[in-house]
Amino acid sequence: MPHKRNPIKSEQVCGLARIIRSSVEPALQNNTLWDERDLTNSSCERVLFPETSVLTDHCIRVMTTVLDGLVINRAAIRRNLALLHGINMAESVMIELTRRGMNRQDSHERVRMASMQALVEIRSLADVLGSDPEVLRYCSKTDLAALLNPDSYIGTSVKQVERVIEKLAPLVF
Question: What span, in angstroms and rounded, lies between the C-alpha atoms of 144 and 70?
Answer without folding.
Answer: 34
